[in-house]
Each structure stands twice: as structure tokens, then as C-alpha cells.
# Entry
Amino acid sequence: MSRMRNALRRGGLMAAVVAALLLVVAAAAGAAVPKETTEWLASELQPSGKGEFCESFSASGRVGQTVDCMLAFKAADEKEGTTTFAADRQAAYEYVLANMSAYVGTEPCATASSMSAGAVAKLALGVIAQGGDPMNVEGRNLIADLQCLQATTGPEKGRFKDKGASDFSNVFGQSLAIVALKACAEKHGCVNPPSLTATLTSAATYLRGQQCDENAAEEGVAGAYRSSMGTTLTPTGCNARTPFPSETEFNENAVEVDSTGFAIEALISQGSGASILAAIEAGSWLTSEAKAEGSPTRLHWENYCSFEEATKKLPSVNSTALAIMGYSEIGLSITPAVAWLEAAALSGSNRGLPACGASGNGDVLATAQGILGLYETSYPTLVGI
# Structure
């Protein structure tokens, strides 16, 4: 946990924010559920030529999904104080290393014709969490790749951009890159030049510029983040409508809980005064979106998570877990939301968490992210900042 976050939680500023935003605290979640949920996730690992992988929705996403499982296994062992899932985590890591070229390509950024900034960032985060060197991953320097992918001039200065014909870089990748770079600079002796401080400052400035403001046409979006990123700082097109109005349309300006939770973690990790204030504003928006139910109170967040009902918001494990991660970084109460995740795990026969809704069969990706929420941790905590 970073010195900055500790200072925030001790300081009067955060005390005032917590007093303003704190919600009713529910009874603590049962201790057995997170471990049982992690055991289910471990049972879903699939053998391969080298190591074992996680697969949720597509074979093409196996490496990224396997990184999510690695992080879940680490969260479980760190919080339980055991090595119960160490072998599962190592098997997943071996698969990631053996198949990383399918995820980040075979060449470094300087010579590659295409590369995903989000994939590089997520892999770097996973390597750091595993205790590896992100500057030498099977011969690849992922930190140099991220710096190569960052725009250095113009209205997109600071953005980590995909290389190639199309650019799908988004708030998820931007945020993970900031967390990975901060961990590398602070905990893992990443070398300069070029300065990671300058890289991080530029990246956080760009991310802050993507935060939504209130406007006359769209109320209720101030502080939130969209998934998409653009060239305009302080975007005016943000809205709270569905991202998928029809099969042929995509509303790229839709705000969402997931991106906002990611952004909070990155902003607090970077740690400047401006970033901390932006994170607090984002936390305020998350609070406005929280759904309370029951007595004692359980808390969850919703998203457009159903392919069959694309215009309907439903309870979401992923969104609730990411909101918990954001809340934990700014010192807000997460107990009611953890209780909701526990109930979602208990609702199924296998203890896996559902992809969409409050009940149903376990889904690998939802469970991997949900475990981080159940164990009350975050991406910065998992990489030691």
C-alpha cells in the first residue's frame, strides 16, 4: 500500500470525503467463501503444452484471462497467509510466458508493425505481481514498449496508443500502464533514462483529461469515465446511456463503472494532488451509482453485461469488484459490496461468480476479478504500491 494512500487515510481530506460518502456497513462476509471461490477458479485451469490457462469467452483472450487468474491466486494466498494456490499461479504464469507472443507480438515496439498497448500493460502488471522483471520478459522490455507506445506530442500527449492500422486503446489499458509503470519505478528498480517520472506524469495528465464533466444535456456523469478515449480533454460528449443502442451502433461516450474503477486505481497510484482530487471525484460518482439492498445492507453496481439484453443494466460482479478496488484506494467502506459478492458466490452450486446478474453459473473472468473484490484488494496492492 503506498505512502500516499496511507497519508490520505490518516489526513483530514480523506476523513471529510469518507464522512460525506460512507454508506451503511453490513456484516462481514464469511471467511470461507473467498477461498472456496478461488478453489473453483483453480479447478477451471486447462492444461496446455506448457503450464495451464484460463478461458472465459474466447481462445484469443486466453493469455489476458490467464493473467487475471494469476492475480486472483496471488490475492488469495496473500490474504490467507498461505501458499495454497502458488502452484496454480506458477502454472498460469508458465502458460503466459510460453504464449506471450500471441498477446504482445514477437517484436519490440520499435520494430513491430502492430501492438496492443492494453496487452503490454496487462502483461507487465502480471509479471510484476509474479515477482518477475518487466524489463526482461523472455527477452522483451515491456517498460520500453510502453514508453514507445506513448504519444509524446499533440492533443493525445500521454496516451498509450495501439500501434497499427486501428487504435483500440482505452481507459483500461491506460490505467493498467500507469499502475505497472509506477510499480516498476517505485519497487523494481526500473532504469532511466528515459524518465519514468515524466512518462507517468504525462500519462496521468492525459487520463485526468478524459474524466467527464457535468453538462446541460447530460446530468449525472461528472467524475465518471468512459471506456473510450479521445483527443479532447475534459470530454463533453459523456452520457449515461447504453453503449449498445442497437446491433449496428456503438455509443462510445457511455460512462461506466468498470472504467471509473480502473481510473481511480491509476490516479491514486500516480499520486499527484490533481490525480488524487480526480480520483475522489470519480469515487463520488461511483457512490451515486451504487445500488443498496437488504438488511444488513448489501451494495452492488450494475452494467450492460448481457448480450441478450444489451440495453438493460443488470447487477455485475465485474463492475462491483472494480468499484471495490476503486473504493479501497480512496478509503471508502467496501464491506457491504463484499457481502454482495459473497452472496453471489453462494447463490450458485459451484461457488464461481456469474458473468451477469446476481446468480448463475460461475464464469472464469467474472470469478477472477470478483476474487479481488472478495479479498478486498486492488491492482496497486498486488504489485506492491
